[in-house]
Amino acid sequence: MIAQDVIDAPAAAPAQQQSGIIKKSAIPDDKEMLRAAVELTRDISAALPRIYWPDMLASAALGYAALAGAILIANPWLATLSGILAALALYRALLFIHELTHIHKDALPGFRFGWNLLVGIPLLTPSLMYEGVHTLHHARTRYGTVDDPEYLPLALMKPWSLPVFALTAILLPFALLLRSAVLVPLGAVIPPLRRLVWARFSALAINPEFRRRPPQGDFRRMVFWQELGCSAWAIALLASTLVLGWRPLLIALCVVSLTAFLNQVRTLVAHLWENDGDAMTVTAQYLDSVNVPPPAVLAPLWAPVGLRYHALHHLLPSMPYHSLGEAHRRLSEHLGLDTTYTKASYPGLMPLMSRLVGSTMRPR
Length: 364
Known about the structure:
Blueprint: H1 4-8, E1 17-18, E2 21-22, H2 31-39, H3 49-72, H4 76-94, H5 96-100, H6 111-120, H7 134-138, H8 161-167, H9 172-187, H10 191-201, H11 217-244, H12 247-268, H13 282-287, H14 299-302, H15 310-315, H16 324-335, H17 349-360
Antiparallel strand pairs: 1-2
């Protein structure tokens, strides 16, 4: 939730302008919006097990059933459709990793273990890859800076960087298989390799300068068991090719590649990526992030589990995904039109993509 000292602090200085463009890092906090976000949503801030469990379980079951169809169905068109359905369902199941980083550890008993067992380990993306990483992205003094593992100033980069950024995700499942089946087991007996793998290849980060610190305490024990599970599963997948051949595994990897590509496209439009590297106020972080509220009908497919309200999530990081729609409705109704709050709302994926591409083409 928003810290009270942020709401009560004096207003920031007026935003500085350079060449007529307001620097993101100079945008002051909108205290009325921050206060309303806290006060209007207290009664809907609890994570509800009756929503989380059925949603996650149904998404995973549908995803694996459709993946089996993609492997077993002889008709290529039906197999392809089944593969696309599998990618979408597994995408939704996988994105519960985002919720795990924010909900209180006691809010959903057994959910972290269940998700890792059913989704995280089978897809070689256990919660260790996000926990302790994503929260740095929400740190008030880190967002949009070189210390943010999930930020690149993509809008200020060259146009070719966007397709490269999106297409590299296709290789992620193959890299994860190599990591868990080869690098992690080797790291168990080669300490320098273990430290390298942890620092560079154990986080879902997009900032190439990010280096992860060694795990400590209870988290270290959790990392051990999750890594053990992933390595055992990855080795079993490779061993299965001796009996089943490579076709089933390659189809599964292609389906997960599509899932990774969808997530990378969503990441491209989750923010405006316009910060120049300076620390930002909470309001500036909000305005550099994106909401795609109704009536955008396809947003639940490409931004599931509440991620269509990504800007609102940056105002209320611990708000459960099933409450974000109601929170958005309340804030829109309370604050009205033509306010700071509405400036983070956009009509859909393609307008956001067009804006980002246009930003990369501006003369610097």
